[in-house]
Amino acid sequence: MTRLTSEDITNIPQTLDQYDLELKHKTGCTLREIACMAASVSENKLSSASANLKVAAIPISSGQGIIPHFAQAVQAITHHIGFSSFTTDSYDIAGLAEAVNRKAQIIFLADDSSFVAVNLPHMLVVDNNEATARGYVAALESMARGIRNRQVLVIGAGKVGTQAIRTLKEWGARAGIFDINAEKAEMVAKEYGVTKEDDLEQALQHYSLLFDASPASEIIQAKHIKSDTMIAACGIPLGLTAQAYSLVKDRLIHDPLQIGVATMLAMTLR
Ligand code: 2YJ
Predict the structure, then answer these.
(1) Element (H or E) spanning 193, and its range?
(2) Which end of the chain has fewer beta carbons closer than 10 Å to its terminal beta carbon, N or C?
(3) pLDDT in tens, 11-41
(4) Percentage above 70 pLDDT, the chain
(5) Shared-domain flag, residues 119 and 160
(6) How far apart are CA 250 and CA 24, in angstroms?
(7) Predicted model pTM
(8) Residues 88 and 168 in one domain
């Protein structure tokens, strides 16, 4: 899992309205609508929960330490979805105590390997990997006006890629999996009964719907972009060359945190 940097996220709070417009333009849905769709939670349920539940984002200093603006970005996204939310002044254990003392029922916290949202009254833990996969599949489904029976190539058989395969199957898509590590791809292909792609170059020529969950950069090039290519890319850094990006930017979903966090929040309400 790539560690986010402060530069990746610093402008998230000020650009959420603009990001919503961008998503609406590309997918027909807002961030909140994508999160609800991804979590199978109705807008009504989200609205009533947002009127009653308070959210806290707790900075965590362990491992490589606090990423400046991370907890604030998470808090801003949950606020944008409609919840009353705050970032704790304290971090780590004291932050957890502060969150509970200030009556937060949903808390967000991340270290270098795990990023979770916890619904305390429901004793429910939601993982960012699963939420990110679900959120980006929902965004791709909306952008492509349906993925049922359509072929989708997942690049990267890590935690998010594997979860994307599972979610794509739930949505009725015909998924293929590629990983630079052929054994990993083989394991996922076997477990979920999907096609294993051995040659990325050939696969990129063949598929139009792409789910890029790999941390590799510059793997998707201009020659791979067709008029109907659509890409959901949750991997950091973005796996497209600058030329490929300029060709497909209107049919590309990519952000550092927004879809994953919004979907985590919606999933805590299931
Ligand atoms: O609280 C903080 O500021 C830090 N402990 C946050 C650490 C954030 N964690 C990461 O960047 C993970 N490696 C990846 C997040 C997954 C996003 N899809």
Answers:
(1) none
(2) C
(3) 999 999 999 999 999 999 999 999 999 999 9
(4) 100
(5) no
(6) 11
(7) 0.97
(8) no
Pocket test for ligand 1, best of 77, 111, 136 (most atoms within 8 A of CB): 111
| Residue 198 structural domain | 132-253
Domain match, 12 and 48 both: yes
Structural domain contains residue 1:
no
55/152 same-domain check = no
* Cβ pair 151, 174 in contact under 8 A: yes
Q: Is the pLDDT of residue 1 over 80?
A: no
pLDDT tens digits along 57-82: 999 999 999 999 999 999 999 999 99
Do 197 and 215 lie in a common domain?
yes
- Quote the pLDDT of residue 3: 87
User: Rounded distance, CA 180 to CA 217, Å?
Assistant: 13
Condensed to tens digits (0 to 9), the pLDDT of residues 77-110 reads 999 999 999 999 999 999 999 999 999 999 999 9
Instruction: Give the position, in ligand 1's atom list, of the atom nearest the Cα of 58.
Output: 1
β-bridge partners, 86: 56
Q: What is the DSSP string of 162-181?
A: HHHHHHHHHTT-EEEEE-SS
Distance 171 CA to ligand 1 centre (A): 28
Cis peptide before 237 (omega within 30 of 0): yes
Distance of CA 201 to the CA centre of its chain: 25
Report the nearest atom of ligand 1 relative to the CA of 132.
18
Considering the domain architecture, whether residues 140 and 106 belong to the same structural domain is answered as: no
- Closest to 16 in 3D by CA, of 56, 84, 72, 62: 72
Sheet holding 106-110, edge to edge: 84-87, 54-58, 106-110, 115-119, 124-127
Task: Supply the DSSP symbol for 151.
Answer: E
Residues 126 and 11 in one domain: yes
